[in-house]
């Protein structure tokens, strides 16, 4: 019976080249020459009987067959790395998190120290990005992201629904004698009137066509920035209570109305299915789910 396994050195070179989309960077990672990487990939192409890369300008791009093999190779090497780490007894090691910016800045950063103190052998590495990490090509261990649905090959835990409602600092509310009805908000500067959350909330509050014509045109990009502007007293922001629970608790912000609308995409905690039993994954998962339940119970967010 012919050996159906590809040459592992060739597969290792191919996986690195596919991950980097670059033979030179793959060679640097593996401690090889570029020519050696090219040769190993040629060996693999001869074995498969089809090209795995094609050149586009000065870059190399996976062919359809190459992309199919790259997915399998990436998963296989991730499993090998994880298994070898477990055998070495160093499975804790580094925990790399990819987290959406507002959640990272306004929720996780206030609590991650507690996790680190309870698990000093785990070195947490935090990466903040609005992009959805590709677990097939990344070394990220856990992602926290806004996503409409679950993804194949990943285990997903819903951390929270994203709700939103207007918030402002008490001093700004007092400047007009208090905010008593939704229309009162229009007497104050509104932060980022182009955000569709504003019209959705006003409509839910019974204000069909809020007049934003005299409002400043602003776009701040993230809730973290908008929340700080609101805390400084420079406007009313449409924010998620979950992300600003500490500011609400400390009186830096007030939520004048109980009405909250729900965004389309919740916040998910995601990680590879084949790593679900890794100690560091389980420790962080259990910790953050417990912290989230405490927050929901305390602040009804």
UniProtKB/TrEMBL annotation:
Keyword set, alphabetical order: DNA-binding, Transcription, Transcription regulation
PROSITE patterns with a match to the protein in the record: HTH_LYSR
Gene Ontology BP, a term: DNA-templated transcription
Keyword DNA repair among record annotations: no
HTH lysR-type domain span: 6-63
GO molecular-function term, one example from the UniProt record: sequence-specific DNA binding
Transcription is among the record's keywords: yes
Similarity section: Belongs to the LysR transcriptional regulatory family.
Name of protein: Transcriptional regulator
Species in which this protein is naturally found: Pseudovibrio denitrificans
